Amino acid sequence: MDKLSRRNFIALTATGALGARVLASHGLRPDAPVEAATFVVDPAIKNPTDKVQLGKTGLKISLVGVGTGTNGWNHQSNQTRLGQESFTRLMRHAHDSGITFFDLADQYGSNPYFSRAMQGIARDRYVIQTKTNSRDPQQARRDIDRFLSELHTDYLDVLIVHCVTEADWTTRYRGVMDVMEEAKQKGKIRAHGVTCHSFQALQAAAASSWVDTNQVRWNARAAHADADVETLRKQFAQMRSKGQGMVGMKVVGQGDIVRGADAASPASCFRFQIESGVVDAFVVGVEKLEHIDEMLRGTQVALAELGYHTVVPA
Questions:
Q1: For residue 116, what is the domain's CATH number?
Q2: Rounded to an integer, what distance in angstroms lies between the CA atom of residue 243 and that of residue 15?
Q3: Torsion from C-alpha of 261, 266, 271, 277, nearest 10 degrees
Q4: Distance CA 295, CA 219 (A)
Q5: What digits encode the pLDDT tens for the residues 155-193?
Q6: Does 158 reside within a domain?
Q7: How far apart are CA 35 and CA 33, in angstroms?
Q8: Which among 39, 199, 211, 256 would be 20 to 30 A from 123, CA to CA?
Q9: Cα(51)–Cα(46) distance, integer angstroms
Q10: Distance between CA 285 and CA 104 in Å, rounded?
Q11: Is residue 1 part of a domain?
Q12: Does any domain span residue 239?
């Protein structure tokens, strides 16, 4: 047997019994013992703002990203409700801190706010992910053109079909998927994908060759998630091994994980994303400048302790 290097030991044990003990020490309790998986450690990823590959999309994004959809519905969110001036300060602080991945959506109303916030910054300095709720192909086509106009850009880096729950969505919404593929071929978008809000929808996404990238609900307590932690871990590992991009969301479980008598630290939530090995990157909906700083500090500590884990593609 080949001698096990310290680097490989860290990568393997982080998802086994040692990983379970680490999670417990940070106030996080997996639903079941964490199974070992095959990982390699990318030694180049040392900082939370270092760029990682988003699956096979060809896109490189910062390991941590900023979300704009806290309590987001009816074309507004906690971030947009701050007003343009505060929203701009938030986005600029994130960008100035090295974050290059920004998660937007029509449902949040954040597209035009973000465009105004980033005026004067070269378009190639950040990656935009936005989302459509449209289920009608013609409306989806209009949405794409409207989003391009709202964002004052020639292309969207990632366009997501937002909040899908149906097990048959890859059949039911084939028309919308075809419109997005057409837009991709025309250079209007660079990658397309989905956010699933049921386990059955996740299974359909895993089976679809159309899906370039997924934004998935993922945290150590399965708060606001689509199944228990171990079921999701196995599903996400399969999706990532196929080369689908994987972005973690609900990192602090809409705040539930970091509140109350049994609260975990935000840093432990960020560590879980890296330690799990099943997402490329993760986004957090920040509302204050100090939230950005806290996310960067906590992720930096996790990287120093663990290294960056990535699943070996099948």
A1: 3.20.20.100
A2: 20
A3: 90
A4: 15
A5: 999 999 999 999 999 999 999 999 999 999 999 999 999
A6: yes
A7: 6
A8: 211
A9: 10
A10: 10
A11: no
A12: yes
pLDDT tens by residue, 107-119:
999 999 999 999 9
Long-range contact list for 134-143, CB < 8 A, 24+ apart? 134/176, 135/172, 135/173, 135/176, 136/175, 136/176, 137/175, 137/176, 137/178, 137/179, 140/175, 140/176, 140/179, 140/180, 141/179, 141/183, 143/106
**pLDDT computed for residue 309 by the predictor:** 67
Q: How many alpha carbons fall within 13 Å on the CB side of residue 177?
A: 16
Mean pLDDT of the region 8-32:
40
Q: Are strands 101-103 and 64-67 parallel, antiparallel or unpaired?
A: parallel
Write the single-letter amino acid at 224: H
At residue 91, does pLDDT exceed 90?
yes
Q: What is the mean pLDDT of the chain?
A: 88
Q: How confident is the model at residue 312 (pLDDT cuts 50, 70, 90)?
A: low
The candidate with the shortest Cα–Cα distance to 246, out of 214, 276, 268, is 214
Range of the domain at 129: 6-311
Write the CA distances from 183 to 123, 180, 190, integer angstroms.
19, 5, 9
Other beta carbons within 10 angstroms of residue 17's beta carbon come to: 11
Number of domains in the chain: 1
CA–CA separation, 222 vs 43, rounded Å?
29
Name the helix (H) or strand (E) containing 146.
Answer: helix 137-151
Name the pTM for this structure: 0.87
Which residue, chain included where needed, has tokens 């003990």?
Answer: 21
Both structure tokens of 192:
């397309």
Report the chain's C-alpha Rg in angstroms. Answer: 19
